[in-house]
Amino acid sequence: MPATLSLPIIDLSSPNRLSSANSIRQACIEYGFFYLVNHGVDTEFMRRVFDHSAKFFSLPLQHKMDLARKEYRGYTPLYAETLDPTSLSKGDPKESYYIGSVADTTSVQLNQWPSEELLPNWRPTLESLFLKLLATGKELLSLIALSLHLDENYFEKIGALDKPAAFLRLLHYAGELGSHEQMYGASPHSDYGMVTLLVTNGVPGLQICKEKFKQPQVWEDVHHVEGALIVNIGDLMERWTNCLYRSTLHRVMPTGKERYSVAFFMDPPPNCVVECFESCCSESSPPRFPPIRSGDYLNERFRVTYGSERDLKCSIQSKNQGCT
Ligand SMILES: O=C(O)CCC(=O)C(=O)O
Ligand SMILES: [Fe+2]
């Protein structure tokens, strides 16, 4: 039986920012995960988001496939991706919908949206969620900068927040318990970018493994805290901090109950160079990773997880009809 964790709870609105920054530091060193409360996205609004999400995923497959993922935006059907590229399973039993930035002028038109007739109010609700989570994420990153003994505007200064390459992902896990080779809802993985903000509909399943290189792996349940966001550190933040902050392995186990979640991935823009923060290295602890452009790092990770766009079409066809 996995143990249940008591992750730290950080109050984003606390006037004592230094104390919050210290708690974030401890949480990121120990777990790479924490809860965030008073974050500005209210529970009633999230309830509406989950209603909209359920309406989308209950559309007939053909309607969803009309919005099949292109340029990493749109619908990804069941089994089309595995978050663990080393896994031999046929793919994770979840479907998802990706929305890229709604806040800058160049890539905003790449997003795909169901029509207003099909799903009234869907687009404005999701756009609003994107902007709310972006504001929350920026506020949180100023506390993360403080927690690393950096100026609170540090991420802005190094260009990490210029048109951040943020993605919103709606997820739907079918309620069935999978067969043996599909034992995961989402297979074990770490997130790629700076930070992820996660909201679930309260159905359990999320687990973390703190020591990713230790065998056997020990998995612990992340329980639901009503109204709190779950925050986790991504791989680029781990590189920036020279592994001081952990990008923790996590997965979703099926429980037999239908589950919905929304993940907001905050990544630096493609040209931002990610190299060890001065406050995280020293002569005795030199940088473990060479500098890398965020775009180069993320593209490679996406390529391994999702393959090319042709692969997506192919894998969908082969599951539904057979691949040509
Ligand atoms: O659905 C969840 O609770 C987690 C999803 C997740 O880890 C991801 O999409 O990266
Ligand atoms: Fe994740």
Automatic annotation (TrEMBL):
<dbReference type="GO" id="GO:0046872">
    <property type="term" value="F:metal ion binding"/>
</dbReference>
<protein>
    <recommendedName>
        <fullName>Fe2OG dioxygenase domain-containing protein</fullName>
    </recommendedName>
</protein>
<dbReference type="InterPro" id="IPR044861">
    <property type="entry name" value="IPNS-like_FE2OG_OXY"/>
</dbReference>
<dbReference type="GO" id="GO:0051213">
    <property type="term" value="F:dioxygenase activity"/>
</dbReference>
<keyword id="KW-0479">Metal-binding</keyword>
<comment type="similarity">
    <text>Belongs to the iron/ascorbate-dependent oxidoreductase family.</text>
</comment>
<feature type="domain" description="Fe2OG dioxygenase">
    <location>
        <begin position="164"/>
        <end position="268"/>
    </location>
</feature>
<dbReference type="Pfam" id="PF14226">
    <property type="entry name" value="DIOX_N"/>
</dbReference>
<keyword id="KW-0408">Iron</keyword>
<dbReference type="InterPro" id="IPR027443">
    <property type="entry name" value="IPNS-like_sf"/>
</dbReference>
<dbReference type="InterPro" id="IPR026992">
    <property type="entry name" value="DIOX_N"/>
</dbReference>
<keyword id="KW-0560">Oxidoreductase</keyword>
<dbReference type="InterPro" id="IPR005123">
    <property type="entry name" value="Oxoglu/Fe-dep_dioxygenase_dom"/>
</dbReference>
<dbReference type="Pfam" id="PF03171">
    <property type="entry name" value="2OG-FeII_Oxy"/>
</dbReference>
